[in-house]
Amino acid sequence: MDPSSLQKLNRCRRERRAAILLTDLTDGRDRVVAEGDPIAGDLGEAVASAFRSGKSGTVEADGRTFFLNVHLPPPRLVMIGAVHISQALAPMAKIAGFDLHIIDPRTAFASPERFPNVRLDAEWPEVVLKDSPLDAYCAVAALTHDPKIDDPALKAALEAGCFYVGALGSRKTHAKRVERLSAAGVPQAVIERIRAPIGLSIGAASPAEIAVAVLAEIIEALRSRGLRAERGEAA
């Protein structure tokens, strides 16, 4: 590997940015492409697809053969609220490969007994997220129904460009949430990125069923990153 490629790849890893080591199998030359770097033509489409799928492999593009070695940051799921849905969602998300983080200032809920082997912070989200900032490979699920806890986390998630931002609550509850975020200075176009009511519409009723719907929606968002922008659709 070219030393400059190694330096860029390591920098992307430190910054939790997705990157691909792109090797031209015709002449052996390589370079690192960070997510967002402009690449035109068939190769650009192949790179975009590899970033979404996370799968490495060989592609034919622009009359040449390339090997794409994909390096994605581990996706992180931050649950705001140590609630029943979180208890069901945590083990499912762990099996699916997500790094887990639960934040809830209510110590009666945020206990290791309820959430064994999960990173747990019994503190306000705005305090925790200063030391553990969100990024584009984070999903945030706000689950407390308490604006004092949920709203700061949602605002931070939107500002960080998290690939998924979801919030529990009815349409009426969400309308009030939109009013509060607008009053806090969050642009309407940004607020529209919030998935609310949270989860895919599968008729979920129990906490476990809601957790399934939420995880499915998060995975869909992770694997379709960039597609909506390319199609001109809302996020």
Commentary on this structure:
The structure is a single chain. Helices cover 41% and strands 20% of the residues. By secondary structure, it is α/β, with parallel strands linked by helices. It has two domains: 3-71, no CATH class; 76-227, NAD(P)-binding Rossmann-like Domain (Rossmann fold, 3-Layer(aba) Sandwich). The protein has a five-stranded parallel sheet with strand order 7-6-5-8-9, with helices on both faces. A four-stranded antiparallel sheet has the order 2-1-4-3, with helices on both faces. α3 (84-95) crosses α8 (207-223). The protein starts with a helix and ends with a helix.
Broad CATH class of the largest domain? Alpha Beta
Question: Based on the structure, what is the oligomeric state of the protein chains?
Answer: single chain
CATH superfamily of the largest domain: NAD(P)-binding Rossmann-like Domain
Number of domains: 2
> Treating each run of at least 4 consecutive H or I residues as one helix, how many helices?
9
- By DSSP, the count of extended strands is 9
CATH topology of the largest domain: Rossmann fold
Q: Calculate the terminal CA-CA distance, rounded to whole Å.
A: 37 Å
Structural class assignment: alpha/beta
> What are the low-pLDDT stretches, counting only 5+ consecutive residues below 50?
229-235
Overall, the morphology is: elongated
Strand order of the largest sheet: 7-6-5-8-9
Beta content comes to: 15-25%
Please give the share of residues in helix.
40-55%
Order of helices and strands: HEEHEEEHEEHEHEHHHH
CATH architecture of the largest domain: 3-Layer(aba) Sandwich
Rg, nearest Å: 19 Å
